[in-house]
Amino acid sequence: MEFYVIFKSKFLLEQTMRKSILKIYGVISLMLIADLAAYYFYKIGLNGYYSDITLFWLWIFSSIMIVILFWKRIMAKLLLAAMVLVLVLSILPMALPFYTLMLSTTSLGLKMDKDLGKNYRAQIVGYSVMGYPVLQVTERKGIFEKQIFQCNDNQLLNDDPNVKIRDAKDIILDHQTQDTLTLTLRYGIRNKSFTFDKKTGNIVKR
Predict the structure, then answer these.
(1) What is the end-to-end Cα distance of the chain in Å, rounded?
(2) Cα 188 to the chain's mean position, in Å?
(3) How far apart are CA 87 and CA 81, in angstroms?
(4) Nearest-CA neighbor of 109 among 131, 122, 125?
């Protein structure tokens, strides 16, 4: 009788833990979906370069845990099959989607990350093996941030094709108004200043 009670208690505890893990995994999955949707439609993400990356890898590791713990269930097998299928499909077309995924979900795609005061952040990132890095500026809004500017070499440096965004050594916030920000890309001897509209993201002065 005592053995039965212990066994039943252990079984109930295990079931409770499994349910809790499923709930946590559900919350993480919903957070990731909301994060991806917010960035795709509104260019809004979690504050900081590594916040979204951390959420993504947290989902990956928790998905692997779910597959292991619930392997006997068909849903776990389907989850694993879906993850493997996405990985294979990303590799097939010259592995371009795979490289994009790896560059955007690790530090490999980050060339420079610079705080511009307490309200803004600039970063130089490259998520494609076929293209050059771009400059992005985000505005902090609590635990979130919204991308308000992005440009490539042609859009920003068309007056001097020898100066590239990826070669910048520093990014300085020179001036700000209610509607605009003025930044300077420092290269050492030659620097590049420009002003952009925060609402439209368009360069208004080079």
Answers:
(1) 83
(2) 30
(3) 10
(4) 125
Dihedral (Cα; 162, 166, 169, 174), 10-degree rounding: 90
Domain boundary among 104, 119, 136: 104
Residue 37: in which H helix or E strand, if any?
Answer: helix 2-42
Task: Specify whether 163 is located in the same domain as 186.
Answer: yes
**46, 107, 114, 124, 145 from 110: Cα distances, Å:** 16, 5, 11, 6, 17
Residue 134 and residue 147 in contact, taking contact as beta carbons nearer than 8 Å: no
pTM: 0.90
Range of the domain at 199: 111-205
List pLDDT tens digits, range 164-177: 899 999 999 999 99
Backbone φ, ψ for residue 178 (5° rounding): -65, -30
